[in-house]
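ARCHIVE CARD
CATEGORY: sequence design from structure
SOURCE FIELD: tokenized fold
FIELD CONTENT:
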């Protein structure tokens, strides 16, 4: 069984997918017992001083994927919009990731300047990526960017028809919209966890097969770093337990 097949099988029930931004965070999540690990394009791009979602972080994304491929759990990589509008280049990226042992990708139709790709063209990118054998999670940003929401289900169907193994619609939280999405997709539906807005128990009961944390863990880690630095500066007790050097080196 390939890593992609192993990852597909995790969607037979329900998968909570945490998203890492570097080797240490990914190794820690795998070591904590999560069945698979994803990456967050925001975390990878920001960590390199780059802007997310504008096709600038291909080199950093592939370099991280190379290091994560050896983890003992399947890894899926956020590749933004494929880092190219050329199906051939997207196909090559898919084969490159598959060859190193990556299990899947997220491929989004959001584009820079808060726009959306033409769905027919994005479907061609989905099909090109799918030639690699990776689990292709086709993401539409209609709700995330709050534009063209009425095209959501049509986009989902177009991407599934192009061979997407799953669909990801971040920003959907209302029960009725979740139900409509699950009914229309015919493949595993992935939602984004949003604290206070999305209940994992509820959406799982509605048929959602995967919930991702997106950039939440990366942002929480930055918040914790600032909180800890402030506590040291201000001479107040630390509010959370901090991993030891030995624990970090043992990842």
């Amino acid at each position: 069984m390939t890593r992609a097949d192993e990852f597909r099988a995790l969607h037979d029930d329900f998968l909570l997918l945490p998203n890492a931004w570097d080797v240490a965070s990914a190794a820690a999540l795998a070591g904590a017992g999560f069945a698979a690990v994803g990456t967050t394009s925001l975390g990878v791009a920001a960590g390199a001083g780059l802007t997310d979602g504008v096709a600038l972080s291909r080199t950093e994304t592939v370099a991280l994927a190379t290091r994560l491929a050896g983890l003992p759990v399947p890894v899926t990589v956020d590749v933004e919009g494929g880092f190219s509008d050329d199906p051939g280049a997207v196909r090559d990226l898919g084969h490159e990731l598959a060859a190193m042992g990556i299990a899947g990708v997220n491929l989004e139709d959001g584009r820079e300047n808060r726009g959306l790709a033409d769905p027919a063209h994005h479907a061609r990118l989905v099909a090109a990526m799918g030639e690699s054998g990776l689990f292709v999670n086709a993401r539409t940003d209609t709700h995330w960017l709050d534009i063209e929401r009425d095209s959501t289900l049509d986009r989902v169907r177009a991407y599934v028809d192009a061979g997407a193994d799953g669909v990801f619609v971040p920003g959907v939280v209302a029960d009725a919209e979740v139900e409509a999405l699950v009914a229309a997709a015919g493949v595993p539906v992935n939602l984004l966890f949003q604290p206070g807005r999305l209940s994992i128990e509820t959406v799982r009961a509605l048929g959602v097969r995967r919930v991702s944390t997106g950039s939440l863990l990366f942002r929480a880690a930055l918040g914790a770093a600032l909180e800890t630095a402030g506590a040291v500066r201000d001479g107040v007790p630390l509010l959370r337990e901090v991993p030891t050097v030995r624990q970090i080196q043992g990842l």
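CARD ANNOTATION: The first helix runs from residue 3 to 10. The first strand starts at residue 15 and ends at 17.
SHELF: design records, drawer C
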